[in-house]
Each structure stands twice: as structure tokens, then as C-alpha cells.
Amino acid sequence: MANLDIAEEKLKVLLEEVKDDFSSIISEEDAKVKIINRIFHECLGWSFSSFSCENNHDNGFSDFILKVGGEGALVIEAKRIGILGVESAVTDKCRALKISGSVLKPSIEGIRQAHSYASEEGIPIAVVTDGITWVVFKTWVKGGYREKEAFVFPSIEAVQNSFSKFYELLSYDCFSAKTYNALFDQIHNSREYLTLPLTSAIEPSEINILQKSPVAFDLDKILHSFFTQLTGDENSEIMKECFVESNESRIADYSLEKITSSVLNNLPQDKNQVGSELSNLIKGNVQAEMPSESDLSVFIVGPTGSGKTTYIDRFFSKILPKSTREHCLTIKINCLDASGDEKTIVSWITETMISFIEKELFVEGFPAYTDLQGMYFSEYKRRAAGHLKKIYENDKDTFDLKFADFLEKEVDENREGYLESLLHFTINNRKKLPIIIVDNTDEFSLEFKTQIFQLCNSYRRKVKLCMLMFPVTDKSAWSFSKTDIFTIHQSKSFFLPTPSPREVFRKRIDFLNKTLVTAETDKKREYLSSKGIRIELKDISKFAQVLEDIFVENNFTAKTLGELTNYNIRAIMSLSKRIITSPVMRIEDLITSYITTEPISYSKFIDALLRGDYEAYRLSTGEDFGVISTFKVNSKKSHSPLLNLRTLALLKVTKSNGRDVEERHLTVQSITDYFEALGVDSVDVESCLTELSSLRLIESYDPSASVLNDIQKLAITYKGLAHYDLSTRNSVYFYQMALTTGICNPEVVADIRSCYKSKKSFSDITSYVRKQFSDYLIHEDKKYINMEEDKEQFECQKSLIKDIQAFRLDKGESNGVIQDNYSSFLGEKLMGKVERYDQEKDFGFMSLTELNDEVYFKVSKLKQNELETIHDGDIVYCTLGQGDRGIQIDTIDGFVEGKNQFQTETCSIKFYNKDRGFGFASIGTTSNEAFFHRTAFPHSFNEHLTEGLDFHAEIRLKDDGKYQIRRCIGLVR
């Protein structure tokens, strides 16, 4: 509103200036220069850089094209005063007038001209004006632009009296947000507004909490401690023990330790104390030379939920040797504590770093006067030998007072200089390496990130021996890499993939076993009582077994949770707790039973996911709950309840057919055009896209784009794919949405409610409710969607309708069979890559290109295995089968020809971490190193692994250009 008020005041000033000069405004050029240009620039906020003048078209030259984001957005056809006319007695306010009507007849030639220029360039809005009269119309509309209305301001008085509408139509800010679509929608369409409120068969206030057993309450406490992302002191327990390592994280650990140690070897130090201690930090590996500049600025890159912050905390608390850690000062900056104001970010970071360093280095939390004298000793000497030499020699007290005044100004007024002095003091006096870690920048603008990156690098360059770490998402890294500042400052990046949900579950279950199952009885009892947990000790082992059955052995569980959360590990953990403690699951029966239980069915799993602790589905807006209703409609305007699904259907087939990332995206304009052919107005399409984007069912190709525009590219996410499958194939989801989604037909609401409250069998109730909801959706959809188009690109829309209609039938519920598209691959010979396999524990994961997923396997359960040994990175032929808990690997049928290139080399272990089971070995006489995991050696040989051991091995060169040891084939004798 402030911008509107300012613009209106500027218009008043402008009109006062030209009021007395109207008589001299004769030509078209006069109108452009003295009125039109100034209104667009001074009042409506268009910069002159967005103006493109005298553009050549097939039909002539347009006066102006105004651009948004480099693309033409608005055509302006200027006329001299008096050419345009509006034949109406009402000229003092904005009016919506039909373009082909008699009122605009005097202006029709100018309108036709503007339309020809705009339609040729594909520009949505055209304006015809002489500076006094303004005609604003939409270039292409269903039925032809001449049969639709334009916004007409017949006079300057009309512009003044209806300025808010003038501003919403033509200001740069509103135009960028495409506000004009909503305004034209109001006059072009006889919109059907909801005359009746949307009502669900069961209102949220009627959905009661289900009673939980005491055992379920206890399990809730256990899961809160072990299966969610915690904060505070308890988090270290999970962080240290349950971080899922990958080859990438191990390589990053090794590299960062080398870099840190290398920098530490360059700190100014007393050779008798620090030198000998640091020389052996990494045996035989650390050389006392300054690392390259790129080593001092490090990006830890990974998708949301990949554990970047946890990785850094774990690295400095557990991975980095204690002797090295003691000589590091980690300065942690959490940008979530910042206001986000780019004008104050420099001072905020400076003050944050100062406060942190003072508390860490000084007992009182601030430097004493003697500390400050030491920090500024060079300045002390310069003054004593320079312009204050006479005072220093003749009056030491006066000199000290003058130096104290200098210190006061430096500390209080020159805060950036004071911070630089603190960093130098950390290095030279305390012999510590400052490591600045800037976290949680992803939620802020690119300009905000750029300022932070530049500021931190400026301090690093000033003090030389300083490291920077930036944990960022892959999307932030992608947008940031396009900036100039990124190329100016060299940096190194380490990528952390999001761990498989199954691996996360397995790691936490192992931790649970270690903490509560294999521990001594007294320790278990002490732990349980400290948590206020009443569960029987004998139940814990069964509980861990049940967790493994549900979250590791079942193929559909981890896959579904991963997709619904876009593989955000924090959200997966929250959803898992919701499911396992839901009264729907009745977990207490499973853990207290001493007979073999049946596998958890997919239906029960989805039911627990949807309902949680309640009688029916309740919408949660929290990050922790990943399921929404795709049938929800706008509460003000009526449109098809299947529009969200129709959009997902289009993007789903686009993703499936796309050969690369570009082809798996569609522009906003192409999506709008697609649905306009089906009779859907662009306003509804844009509203739908905005909603789906906010719910993370779709995502932008460019993560830095925050506002939808016509050229923005969109694609369906994992969460979107999961919701489409639930909406079209899952009876449990469809039934719960039928009960709780707002419906605009009171009769349908009453029918569903009556049936739900009846004493019929559950099977009869669910069948009837699904039928009623299916009929309602199809009936409402036909009101707004014209499916007469019989073209190939609309096949996905027809398939959607068939799937919704199929819910009218009594679909049988699945008992453990995974609800996905894998069935078509059962028995087929597929190509898979062994992502990881643990011979000792006999479990592994195979990634299959055709499925874009990983499948769990155990060699002991294979029906056929034609390989002598299986190792990480092997590319093999395999087949899938249907097990009790979903899809499984049935057979491994040998290596894929030409895909497993090994070379035999003599290697020597250069570094080995016994506790974590990985290391690096030098290859022959070259300077190359190969990563290895202990599973590359026979299990019986693990205790003999040590640095300096020479062995023969099969080496493979990975796709990223790095070497990995496949397996040891013998020792060097």
C-alpha cells in the first residue's frame, strides 16, 4: 500500500508540472516524452532499462515494449492527444468496455495496431494511449480479443479517481506478479463464485484422538529420543552414532582433516611446543606447506535433509583428531538468527563473530586491557617510534593515555578492524586456526548469500590462515555458482548425498539395539527409568525387530516415506514416529506377542500414516507431516477439484518422457496454454501452480526464482509423484480424503456423512463413500473442463479420469504388495549397481536405473547367485521378485559385459580408520590414491588392516574420476 500511495503522490506532482503545458503537447513525440514516459517511469516504477523503443514488426514499428526479466511483457502504442476517443458521457472513472462496442469505435484503429504488434511478439498485454486516454486490453483471450472488454480510462480525471486499478494493471511490481490476470478474469469471465460453503463430511472438530495404550506412550518417548532430529544436549547422541556415512562423506572427512592439519602447520608457533605435536597429525601425509587458496574456502553441498550441519558438527567433535581439534577455533554463524536485511548483514555478522571469539578466548568474556595492548602491539610500537616518539620518551603516562584513547576508538568505532585484530590474536597469540562456519543461508536471497560470502572471504584474505565452511543445498550452490563473486574467490566443494531412508532406519535400529538390547540389564533399566519409560525390558528386543521389519525389510515403507518428504531425512524420521506410535498400527500387540506376526500390510501402513493419533485424517501444516489432500479447491472461487491432479498428471508424463533435465520441465506459459485448450482460465492455472509449488509437489528449475513468471520452468517432485499415485491408486487415501475434503454439494456431504455414521460393515461403508466421492469429483470436473479435445497430449488427462472412476468399483485392498509400477519389471533381466554390501551382516542395496530406486537384498535369500563375491560398485544383471514385504532382488546373474573394468595393482595402505572401517591406499608408484572400505577385504582379515600394509587389489576408476578398491586379492609377500 505504501508503494501505491507514493505513486499516487508522484502522479499529482507530475500532472501539476504539465498542466500549464498541455497546449504545447501537439505531436505523438510530445505525448511520449512529456506524459507517457514519465508516468511509466516516475509513477509506475519501470526503469528506463526495461524500455525498448521503435521495435520493427511485420506490420510496422511499435512505440514501446516494456520488458520484465528481459522478456517483452507490455506493448505501448502512443498517439497524439485528441486521436483517441471514448464516445460516452461518463469520463471521470475507469470503465470495462467491449472492444468491438460503439463506445470505443474512435479508438479501434489504435487498438488494432497495438494488438498486431503484441500478438506477433507473444506479449500478453497491450496499451493504447495519448497520455490522457488509456485503453488496456489482453492480447489473446478465448473467443477473440474484440469480443472481450478492455479497461478504459477516458481522461486524466479517470486515472486519478481510479488510480489503484491503474496501478494494479500497469505498475512494474504488480505487472511482475501478473496481477492483471486476476483483474481481467473479473471482467472476461462470468465466474461462478461459491454460493455455498465448502463442507466436509466430518468436520475437524469432530475427529477425536484415539486412545493409546501405556506401551504406545512409552514407545513414543523412545522414538522421540532415537528417531527424530533433536536439538540441545541429546542431539549429540544421535549425531555421533547415527550419522549415515557414505563414500563421499568419508572422502570429505579425509580431505578436510588434511587441509586443517596443513593450515595448522603454518601457524606462528613455538617450535619447542607446537611443532613436534602437529608434525604427526596424519602420519606420513601432512607436509608443512601452505594449502592452495581453494582449500581454505569449502562448500559442503547436499540436498535438504542430507545432514550437512550434522556432518560438520560430527567432523569437529568426533572425526578430527583431538590433538588437531584443540588448535581450532570454530566460529559458528547461524543465519536464521539474522533479520535478513541486506543493509545490516555486514554489521550483524561482524558483531556475531566478535561476541563468539571474545567468549571463547577470554575468561571474562571480553579482552582485558593487557590483552588489547598485545593485540595492538604493532600500533603501539609504530606510535612509540613515530609521531608520538617525543611523548613516549618524555612522558610515558601521557603516551599511555593517548594509546588508550586509540584503543577505545578502535574497539568501539572500528568494529571490522577490531574483528580483524581478534582473528590475528587467535592465530598469533593463542595458536589456534579460526574456522568460520556459516550455516542456514539457503532461506535467504542470492544477494544476501553473496554479501556473506564476500565478507567472510575478505576476512580470510586479510588474516591469511583462516578457513571458511558453507553448508548449502545443491539448489543454492547451483544458483550461487552463476554469480561473479563465486568465480573471484576460489573454493572447494564436497557433495553429501541424501542417505537412503532404509540406511537411516537401519543405523538407528542398530543404535537402539546397542543402547537398549545388548547393554547390561542394569544400564538398560537405568536408561529406561531416566526417560520415564515403563516398557518391559524383555519387550525391547522384540520392538527393535519389529522396527526392522517395518522400516528396513519392507520395500514400500522407506520408499513411500522418502517420496512423501522429497527425501528430507528429518521429515522422514518424524513421519516414522507418527506411524509406529499410531493406535492404527497397534504396535504394542506386535512387540508383546511371542508368535510370528503377519507382515505389515501396505493398507495399514498408509492408514497409520494418514490418521496418526486420530479417528480420521487431519491436515497438518507442519514440515513434519507430508500428506495433503490433492482434491482441495479454492475456498472463494469454484473450479475443478481435479485441477491439481490434472496439473500433476501433465508434469508426471513430461518427467517420464523427458530425455534430460531440460525436457522434464515445462514453462508456466506452456502449462497455461495446455489447460486453456481445455477451457481452464489462466488465473486458475496460476493459482494452482502457486499452491502446488508452496506444498512442494512441484519445483522450479531455477531455485533462486521466487515468483512465478511465464518463462519459469517447473517439474513434478518426488512428493508430487507420490501424491499422484496415492490419489489415483490408493483406496485408503481416497476414502480418508472423501471424509475430510471440503465439498460444495450439501447432498453429497450428507450422503457420505450418513453412511459413515451408519452401522453397516466397514467394507460396505468404504465402498459407498468412495463411490459417492468419485461421482462428485467427475461431475464437478465436467463443469469446468472441456475434454472434447481428442489429441495425444491429453491422453494423460483421460487416464486420470479413468483412475478416478475406478474408485466407484470395490477395489480390493493390498496385503503387503507394494503399490508402485514395479510389477511390470518382475522376472525381467535388469541392470543393477551394488551401491553398498556388507558381507558380515549380509545386507545391501542395489540401484536399478529402470526403477530410479534402490532395492534391498540379502545374498542368503537369493534364489540364484552367479558371482563368487559381491562388492560395492559392481554392475550386474539381476531379476526382481515379489516378497512378503514388497519388491526384492531374486537373482544376481553375473556381471554386465563392458561395465566392470578392473585393473590389478599393488597398493599400500596410507590411512586407515579402524573404528569407521575405511581408508585410502596409494596405487603402485603413482601419486594416486584409492578409497577402500573394509568390506573389500575378507572379514577375517579386518583386524590385520593397518597403515603401511602392502597388498594386491582390483582397482576401478569411478565415474567421478576417482579410484576405488573393489577387493583385495592377496598380500605382497
Structural write-up:
- The chain is of the alpha+beta class.
- The protein is 44% helix and 17% strand.
- Strands 1-2-3-5-6-7-4 form a 7-stranded mixed beta sheet, with helices on both faces.
- A hairpin with a 4-residue loop joins β22 and β23 (918-923).
- α26 crosses α33.
- The longest helix has 23 residues, at 762-784.
- It starts with a helix and ends with a strand.
Low-confidence stretches: 228-235, 270-289, 593-597, 812-819
CA-based shape: globular
How are the strands ordered across the major sheet?
Answer: 1-2-3-5-6-7-4
* Distance separating the two termini: 82 Å
* Rounded mean pLDDT score: 80
Structural class: alpha+beta
- Sheet having the most strands: 7 strands, mixed
In oligomeric terms, what are we looking at?
Answer: single chain
Rounded to an integer, what's the Rg over CA atoms? 34 Å
The number of E-state strands comes to 26
Indicate the percent of residues in helices. 40-55%
What portion of the residues fall into strands of 2 or more residues? 15-25%
Q: So how many helices?
A: 37
Could you give a quick summary of the protein structure above?
This protein is an alpha+beta fold and 973 residues long. It contains 37 helices and 26 strands. The longest helix has 23 residues, at 762-784.
